[in-house]
Every structure is written in structure tokens, then in C-alpha cells.
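Run log, item B.
One chain of 203 residues. Sequence copied directly from the ordering sheet:
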Amino acid sequence: SLSAHISTRQEATARARPGEPARVDREQYERSLSLLHAAMESTADGLLVVDRAGRVVLFNQQFVDMWRLPAEVVATRDDAQFLADSATLVVDPEAWRRKVEEINARPDEEWFDEIHLLDGRIFERYSKPQRIGGVSVGRVWSFRDVTERKALEEQLRKLAFHDPLTLLANRSLFWNRVEHALALAQRSQQRVAVMFLDLDNFK
């Protein structure tokens, strides 16, 4: 299964402490594991956790689906393989790799940016350090598909400045351009000319 995978160096049983019975609360461990799995799979974001050595510690199915990772790549649990495969989907692969390297080189910083894919999708990428005892031991990556939201924002922007029937610039866009031209002319000590056309019977 390509659902959430969890790798841990901790054993399912714990070593006994002096004076304590040599057993672990397995039920509590399984409950915590189940809650983590459910939380990972219930989010609409693609999640990936990588340790400082470049080993994939955890990810959810949404991450696999968003980046369309083949099973053989997923099986490697190698961040370098994940990166190489995902680079084939982005508009600028080199910039994608450089940004990841830059983020990894600053383990204590948080990052946010947008990624544009060749198929037109747009992802928001948010990354923050994973810390244990105040020490950065890895990095958490979160990816959100905002393609529909961006398309709606662009549509609303066009409707704000264009007539919905003719798609011609409306009065708001006209005054926006005039104000910009006037400000530019004032700074450069130049003149601005405005021409009005009266179109008879225009509908």
C-alpha cells in the first residue's frame, strides 16, 4: 500500500528501567500510531517528513497522488529519488532543485512559496523544521493544490476590470490606467493625452 508510511528506529517494546517491569504499554503505542496515521490521511495537503540524512521518515497518500510518484520511487524512501522524480513535473526543474537545496541548507528556518507545474497546477509549499528537544532533526514539507483558487482569483480580477459580456476594459480599469499615466507623467515631467470615442448603437 502507498498510504501513510512510518519508519522509526524505536522498537515497539521499550527497555525496562531499573525497578520497573520489563514491558511497554503496547496498546498506547498502537493508539498513538493510529491517531498519527488518521491525522496524516485526513488532511487535503500532501505531507512529507525527511530527516537530516535525507531519509524519508513519513508521508501520506495525498503527497504521493499530488506528485504522481511511481511505486518504485516510493519504495526507495530516498528523498533524492523523490526530488528527482518530482522535478520532472515542475516548470523550472533547476530552480526547483536549487530552492530545495537552499531550504535544506538552513535547517532552522521556515519557508513558503508557490510551485508551478507543467500541467498547469499550482502548489503552495510550506516547510518548517522538525525539532526534538529544541534541536532540528529533519524537515516537514506541506504541499497544497491551489489551482482552482488561483483560477478563481484570476477570474475575479478580470471581472473587476472588464465587462463580462464584451470582455472589454471597463471604467474601473480605464481610471486605473489614467491615474497611473498621470503619476508617471508627473514624475517624468511629460504630458498625457486622453481620447474619447463615441460609438453609436454599441451594445
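Observations after the first pass:
- The CA atoms of residues 156 and 162 lie 10 Å apart.
- The longest strand covers residues 122-132.
Flagged for discussion on Thursday.
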